[in-house]
Design goal:
The complex is a heterotrimer of chains A (252), B (224) and C (55). Chain A contains eight helices and no strands. Chain A is mainly alpha-helical. Chain A has one domain. Chain A is globular. The longest helix of chain B is centred in the middle third of the chain and has 30 residues. Chain B is elongated. Chain C is mainly α and 55 residues long. Chain C has one domain. In chain C, 16% of the residues are buried. The chains are: A mainly alpha (252), B mainly alpha (224), C mainly alpha (55). Chains in contact: A-B, A-C. At the A-C interface, helix 3, helix 4, helix 7 and helix 8 of A face helix 2 of C.
Chain lengths: 252, 224, 55
């Protein structure tokens, strides 16, 4: 406790109480949504209008502004899910469990978006909708991992038990993701030879880069918003018989 | 009873139970043989084509056979309550579960390895690759059992766990599949396969140490 | 820059706009669906509570 400043500790302590969490996030979400909207408008204006067309790929490279941020987020969300699940598993904090499972569907959505946009980008670049490219393949396996988490949660009726199962699975997955990632990359270099990965842009120009970073921040905010919305719903359903939900119902 | 004695006792008990139901024991093996022999019917019997895809066929079939056999790992113990006894015993659960996994591998994994040379011959695999295939199976199938145990432990309490089990376990099998089938493929081309073998051995060590822990946590979750 | 040029995306209009469209739709569904679910659930519970009070 000593390394954590007292106000921060107090904040997390309060947030672990469901009614506090519900009220606080209810006030927080509108603010986050406004910031998200502003960032998206700025990012898209920069990406779709201001950034010059790529000299090789023309305007098709503009898919990067959603493809790369969602690919980043797909991994990030999995890690958050595993960490939250681990916290829920060890300290039995109900809200950590809820955050973990609420992250799953948002993360799966990001993975899906990364796959679809990758395929849509691949069509004009490679000439086919699907190439067994290392990045797309690991993204596909990541989607399977997410579907496993969601499926397992749905299959177990008791939601407290289901949360623990999901946490164990997510932790196993998070240990495996690096192994899967490197094995797929290794497999890819062996089977296809050194392909010129056209999505690789190590030396991207700054006018093309900043909109992507803005979009990355915007996607992070979106994740927080969508995850909190899910968590609020899950919380109300789980706590339906508690006093604070009943008082909430009377105000409707 | 010391821990080691308990470990051995679990293995002996599980082997005894398995030998009492010999017919059931053979099912994954027959499944493996049938799936492999379906491939030539599906893709055509050109020797060259079969030879190229033989490592992949054998490994994917082994993967599926291992996955289908998983359900028997904890099922009967879960139904008759002996799993509860294992969890209640004073010894660390993960070690006892490791014993169960080892026994399960002896019963389902080892037969696959013994029959694999025959199937490799079916598909026209060259002799050098045969040894590599056996070595990859020796290193790889225990990993399949170990990772699979986590999946079964998570789903053993469910009435229809089979479908969800495959969804949980198959993505985690990807690294083993990649390195093992690639090693066999390289060996058929006469190339060295030390790197793949070392990686497979490393994965096996990692799985041996790490997999029993989540598996025992998941079993405790399933029993609660 | 005129609008036509902007929407044409240098001949890649379909790929670019389809990507953005599908992203928008997926994100909208993921963000909105829990809100609808929560509203429905709360309405249902409020109704149940009222019925309980009467009886």
């Amino acid at each position: 406790m000593s390394i954590i400043p007292k106000p921060v500790g107090l904040f997390f302590h309060k947030m672990a109480s469901p009614p506090h969490f519900y009220r606080f996030t209810g006030r927080l979400i509108p603010w986050l949504s406004w910031i998200f909207l502003i960032l998206v408008v700025v990012g898209l204006y920069g990406g779709l209008v201001l950034a010059p067309a790529d000299y090789q790929q023309g305007d098709s490279f503009r898919i990067i502004y959603i493809h790369v941020p969602s690919a980043w987020m797909s991994l990030f969300v999995y890690v958050v899910m595993a960490v939250a699940g681990g916290i829920g598993l060890v300290w039995r904090i109900k809200l950590a469990e809820i955050v973990a499972i609420s992250s799953a569907s948002v993360g799966a959505a990001f993975t899906f978006i990364a796959l679809v946009t990758g395929s849509l980008w691949g069509k004009p670049m490679w000439g086919t909708w699907w190439v067994w490219d290392a990045r797309l393949t690991s993204e596909l396996i990541l989607l399977f991992l997410y579907l496993g988490v969601i499926g397992l949660y749905g299959a177990i009726d008791d939601k407290r038990t289901a949360s623990r199962a999901v946490a164990i699975l997510a932790l196993v997955g998070v240990v495996n993701i690096p192994i899967i990632h490197y094995s797929v990359e290794w497999w890819n270099t062996l089977h296809q030879g050194p392909t010129v990965s056209k999505m690789d842009k190590p030396s991207i120009h700054i006018s093309m880069l900043w909109p992507m970073l803005v979009m990355a921040v915007a996607f992070k905010l979106y994740y927080v918003i969508a995850m909190l919305q899910r968590a609020r719903t899950e919380l109300v359903i789980r706590e339906r018989n508690s006093q604070w939900v009943k008082t909430l119902l009377e105000s409707i | 009873m010391s821990l080691f004695q308990a470990f051995i006792a679990i293995i002996r008990r599980d082997l005894l139970l398995a030998f009492r139901r010999r017919a059931e024991m053979m099912n994954p093996l027959f499944f493996f043989i049938i799936v492999v022999s379906l491939f030539p019917l599906g893709v055509g019997a050109q020797p060259h084509l079969l030879q190229t895809i033989a490592p992949g066929i054998i490994w994917v079939s082994a993967l599926l056979a291992a996955m289908l056999s998983l359900d028997g790992l904890f099922r009967s113990d879960f139904d008759d309550g002996s799993l509860e006894q294992i969890l209640l015993s004073p010894h660390p659960t993960s070690v006892l579960i490791l014993g169960k996994i080892f026994a399960h591998w002896l019963v389902t994994g080892l037969p696959l390895i013994l029959v694999a040379p025959l199937l490799a011959e079916f598909l026209g695999m060259p002799g050098d690759a045969l040894w590599v295939l056996i070595k990859t199976l020796l290193l790889g199938t225990p990993v399949l059992s170990l990772i699979g145990a986590i999946g079964v432990a998570l789903t053993v309490g469910l009435r229809r766990g089979g479908m969800i089990l495959s969804l949980l376990v198959l993505p985690l099998y990807v690294p083993v599949l990649i390195f093992a089938s690639n090693a066999v493929e390289m060996a058929s081309g006469g190339l060295p396969v030390d790197a793949q073998m070392n990686i497979l051995a490393a994965i096996l060590c990692l799985a041996l140490v790490l997999a029993p822990l989540p598996a025992s946590a998941a079993l405790k979750m399933s029993m609660s | 820059m005129n609008w036509q040029e902007f929407f044409a995306m240098g001949g890649y209009a379909f790929y670019v706009w389809f990507s953005y469209g599908i992203t928008f739709v997926v994100m909208l569904i993921i963000a909105i669906s829990p809100i609808i679910q929560r509203k429905q659930f709360l309405r249902q519970q409020a109704l149940r509570l009222k019925r309980q009070d009467k009886s």
